[in-house]
Amino acid sequence: MKLKPLLNNASSKLQKLVGDRSLFEARLLLAKVLSVELVDLIREDQIEIAESDEKIFSELVERRLKKEPMAYLLGEKEFFGMRFKVSHSVLIPRPETEDLVHESLDWIKSKRVDSNSARILDLGTGSGCIAISLSKNLPEYFEIEALDRSSEALEVARINAKKLGGANVKFIHEDFNQFEPSQKYSLIVSNPPYISTEEFEDLDEGIRAFEPRLALESGKCGLDDLLLIVARYPQYLLRPGLLALETGSFGQREAIKSRLESQSTVRIWDLNCHLFMEFG
């Protein structure tokens, strides 16, 4: 079949699911199958598609119709100006998590963190998007440790570090519930699980059915991992040091603040869905 009718047929199928994005998504999937850039498909809409490629494309469209996220179908997701490999072993990087990276970088630069204290810990690294983005935007003397309890997630993160650059990132297979650091850090950063058990059941099917539950759900109130980090990890911060967390609801951020309000040495601020705690 020629390219144009193949795309139009797929777009028609996807219309109900994604509306006006249907043709765009169909083009993305076909570009993936043919290993070409999107612009090439727009220019060459009369080329003949091989039967084998047509079959693979049709399978991807069917998976998309079952609400599987595009990032998993394409095998990558853009984050902080880079294309990160993703698989079903890792959470898909979200645009809002870029704010966590931006604010952390701004804090490091404002404190003029030097080579004597240039150590960062990323808890629950997943695809490695936070650790690698920090690495790419900081001097090479920064040492970054990135933990994850999933060996499959770390495999993806290591591939991303090799592809995108992250030679100063050390990946560690460890649950941050048990990790015992041997040093202290200027920055501890995390996008931990923060969805409650009840909220998980109400998530969009594309998230609930395809993204790793281990990276999303955190107990009855969604606070189990957040409170554990706040309880355990400030002792591993240098002074001054920053604990930077992505959170869910306003109520979660207030619950965390209440645990720290008695400590006069802590400066706390919100930014969208993130909480920053400077210990000085």
Brief write-up:
The chain is an alpha/beta fold and 280 residues long.
What does this structure look like?
The protein is an alpha/beta fold and 280 residues long. It has two domains: 3-66, Orthogonal Bundle (Helicase, Ruva Protein, domain 3); 77-279, Rossmann fold (3-Layer(aba) Sandwich), CATH 3.40.50. It contains twelve helices and nine strands. It has helices spanning 3-18, 22-34, 38-43, 51-65, 70-74, 97-111, 129-136, 151-164, 197-202, 205-208, 224-232, 250-260, and strands spanning 76-79, 82-85, 119-123, 143-148, 169-173, 185-190, 237-246, 266-271, 274-279. Strands 5-4-3-6-7-9-8 form a seven-stranded mixed β-sheet, sandwiched between helices. Strand 4 (143-148), helix 8 (151-164) and strand 5 (169-173) form a beta-alpha-beta unit. Helix 1 crosses helix 2, helix 1 (3-18) packs parallel to helix 4 and helix 2 crosses helix 4. The N and C termini lie far apart (66 Å).
Which geometry do the CA atoms define? elongated
Number of helices: 12
Which structural class do the helices and strands define? alpha/beta
Q: Please estimate the helix content.
A: 40-55%
Question: What are its keywords?
Answer:
alpha/beta; Helicase, Ruva Protein, domain 3; seven-stranded mixed sheet
